Amino acid sequence: MTQKVISGSYAQSYAALLARVQVVSAYPITPQTSIVEKLADFVASGALPAQFIKVESEHSALQVCVSAAGLGARTYTATSSQGLLLMHELVHWASGMRAPIVMGVVNRAVAPPWDIGADHTDTMSQRDTGWIQFYVESNQEVLDTVLQAYRLAEDPEIRLPVMVNEDAFYLSHTVEPVDVPPQDQVDAFLPPRDARAVLVPGVAARLGSFTGPDHYVEFRKEVSNAMRRVPERLRVIEEEFLDIFGRSHGGPLATYRTDDADEVLMTMGTMTTTARTVVDELRAEGRKVGLAKLRLFRPFPAEEIRSLAGGVDRLGVVDRSYCFGAMGPAATEVSAALYASPHRPLVSSFVAGIGGRDVTPGKVRWMFDALAAGEGAETSWADLEETRGLPVHG
Amino acid sequence: MAKLTIPAQELMHPGHSACPGCGPALTMRLLLKGLGSRTIVSVPACCWTVIGTPYPTTALGVGMIDCPIEATGASISGLRAAADAMGFKDLNVVGFAGDGGTADIGLQSLSGMLERRTNAIYVMYDNEAYMNTGVQRSGATPAGAWTTTTPVSGSGHGKTEAKKDMMGIVLAHHPAYAATINPSFPEDFLRKVEKARTIDGPRFFHALTACPPGWKYSSEKTIALGRLATDSGLFPLYEVEAGKYHITRKGGALKPVADYFHQQGRFAHLTDHDIGLIQQQVQNDWERLQVLEKAS
C-alpha cells in the first residue's frame, strides 16, 4: 500500500490507471481538467497503455466511450456541469446500449450565471437516464468507488454505466492522504472485462438497432431490472472490497449515530463530514441526533431509507441542488419512499451549499434546530439569512 | 469476354427495407463488396437506420452499431480506439451517414475525426435532403430544389441557398484520401473503395445517392439519372490522395444540366433562366476542378 497526498481529481485518475482502462476520451472543463491531464501523463509515460482520444466536445467524448465499449473495451471519461448537460443525449445512449462506462463527474453549478462551485444540479438532471450514481465524501472514497464502479458496471447481471460524483473544489482540488493500493490487489478485485453483447469483428450483428412497441418495452424493462439488482450486487462487491483492501464506505446509505436518534439529517457528498462533527457536538449537548449519508442515489435505496425511518421521528433531507417548483430531488425521493413505510417520520427539505456556498457547522446546527421545530412543509434554502432568521456564525 | 471486376461477395442481404431504386442501398452494397466482411459500420439516425431492418434482424453481413445523428465521427473514433487497444487487426471501421447528419448537425464530429487523424472511412451518402424524415432541406440540398421546407408556392421558389461544398470542407482537413463516388459507375466506385481500404488515416467519400420519392422521379431511372449527374458535370468523379487531385471520369463534352433537371419533379418549377445560371456555375466549377488537377 502506498499512501499519496492527492486531490480528488487525481484519485479519479489513479483509479482509472489501476482499473487498466483501455480507452479514455474527454474534453476539458473546469474543474474536471486535472483528472484528464493526469491520465494524459499516465498514457504518455507508458504507465497506462490506453488509447486517449482527445475530442472536440463532451458529446463526442461519451460517444467515443459508447462505441469503444461496443467493441468490448473498458472505457473512462470525466466531465462536469455544462459538459454533462451537453452529453445528455449520449448519457441515455450509454445505458440503452448497456455500455459499462465509468464516468467521473466533478459536481459544479449550472449556468447562468456562471459559477464553478460545488452543486449537484448537474448530475441530478441526469438521474433518470439509467446510470448508477454515487456521491462521495472523501478522496479515498473517490478512488475506492471508481474501482467498485467498474465491478458493478461490468457485472453480467448489471451491465450499466456508473457516475462517480465528487464535489467541485472541496474534493477535486483539495489534497488528502489516500491509500493507493498495489496493482496486484486491484487486479485480484477487478479482472479484465468479461465482454458480452458486444460486436465481434467478422460477425454480423447490430448493436443499438431500432424497434417498434413490440420490443421497446422489453428493452427498457431489462434496464429497470438491472437497476433493481444493483443493491444486492453492490453488497457482495463491497464485501469483497473490504476483504481485499480493508475499507468500507457503508453501502448505499451510510448511517452515523442513528440507532436511538429522534432526529436524523441526510446529506450527500462533502457536507457529510461537517455534519458528522455537528452531530458529535449536539450529542455532547444531550440531543438524540444522527446522520445518514446518501451515497447511492441511483438506484434509489428506498429499502434502506424505510429501515432507517423505523425509529426516527424527524428526518431532514439536505439537497445540494434544487427543483424549481418542487422539493429538492433527494427530499422528493425520500418522501416517496417513506409513503409506503408503516412508520413515517416528518420530512423536512433543505437546500444548502448550491453554487459552492460553504455549508458551515453553524448552518448544519440551524438545520437540526429547524428540523426539531419545523412542520416539514416548505423547502428551506438554508444558505440564506432570511431563511435562518438570524445571523449564523461558524 | 469482359472480366467481371465487381466482387461477387454480397454483404448486404435481400429483405432490407429500402425504397425501390434507392441510391443509398446500392451504395452500401457496393461499399461492402469493396471492403469485405472484416468491417464494422457505424450508422447514425438516417435512412439506413430503417433500411438495416428492425430488431432482431439485420440486413448487413457485417457488424453495425447505431449512434445519434450528429455523432458518427466520434463513433468511428471510438471503434478505432477500441480496435487498437484490443489488438484487432485488419478491421475496416466505417461511418455511413446521410447528408444532414454530415453537412449539418454532424459537421463538428466529422471535423474532429478528420483532425485527430482517425484511421477510418467516413461515407456521406448524399440524397440532398433529410429524406428519412420526409424531404426537408439540408445544407447539401442544391439551390432551386423543392423540399417540404423550401416549398414552391406563394413566395417560395425552392431552396435559395447553394449546396454546401463538403469535399472542400473535408479537404481543408488534409485527409489521407477523399473521393466522390456514384453507384451509377460501379467500377470507378469499387476501384476507389479498394484503394481507400489500403490507406491508413482518415478517408472520406462523398457519394451522390439518388432518391426517387425525394427527388420525384420514377424509380427505374436511378442509374441513368446518376450517370447524367456526373456526365453533366454536376457531380464530377474525382479523388484527392495526399493532396493530389485526379479526375477519374472525363467523358468529353459535358451534357446539358437541363437534361438532368427536367427528369426530376423537385426541379419542375425552374425556368430556362434559372437553369442557364446553374449551367454557367457548373461550367465554372468543372473548369476549376480541371485547374486543380493540373496544378497538383
List the helices and strands and how they pair.
The complex is a heterodimer of chains A (394) and B (296).
Chain A lengths: L1 E6 H11 L4 E4 L6 H13 L5 E4 L3 H13 L4 E5 L1 H16 L5 E6 L13 H4 L7 E4 L3 H16 L7 E6 L7 E6 L2 H7 L15 E3 L5 H16 L1 H16 L7 E4 L6 E5 L3 H14 L4 E6 L1 E3 L3 H8 L4 E6 L9 H11 L6 E6 L9 H13 L6 E2 L3 H4 L6
Parallel strand pairs in A: 2-3, 2-4, 4-5, 5-7, 6-7, 11-12, 11-14, 14-15, 15-16
Antiparallel strand pairs in A: 1-8, 6-13, 10-12
Chain B lengths: L22 H13 L3 E5 L3 H5 L11 E4 L5 H15 L5 E7 H6 L2 H9 L5 E6 L39 H6 L5 E5 L4 H12 L5 E6 L3 H4 L6 H10 L6 E4 L2 E4 L9 H5 L10 H24 L1
Parallel strand pairs in B: 1-2, 1-3, 3-4, 4-6, 5-6
Antiparallel strand pairs in B: 5-7, 7-8
Helix pairs in contact in B: 1-7, 3-5
Description:
The complex is a heterodimer of chains A (394) and B (296). Chain A has 394 residues and is an alpha/beta fold. Chain A contains 14 helices and 16 strands. In chain A, the strands form 3 sheets. Chain A has a 7-stranded mixed beta sheet with strand order 3-2-4-5-7-6-13, with helices on both faces. A 6-stranded mixed beta sheet of chain A has the order 10-12-11-14-15-16, with helices on both faces. In chain A, α1 runs parallel beside α2 (33-45) and α1 (8-18) packs parallel to α6. Chain A is globular. Chain A starts with a strand and ends in a 6-residue tail after the last helix. Chain B has an 8-stranded mixed beta sheet with strand order 2-1-3-4-6-5-7-8, with helices on both faces. In chain B, α1 (23-35) packs across α7 (186-197) and α3 (72-86) runs parallel beside α5. The mean pLDDT of chain B is 97. The chains are: A alpha/beta (394), B alpha/beta (296). The A-B interface holds A 22-23, 25, 50-51, 53-57, 59-61, 63-73, 89-90, 93, 199-212, 215 and B 37-38, 40, 42, 49-50, 52, 54-56, 58, 60-68, 70-71, 73-79, 81-86, 88, 91, 108-109, 111-112, 115-116.
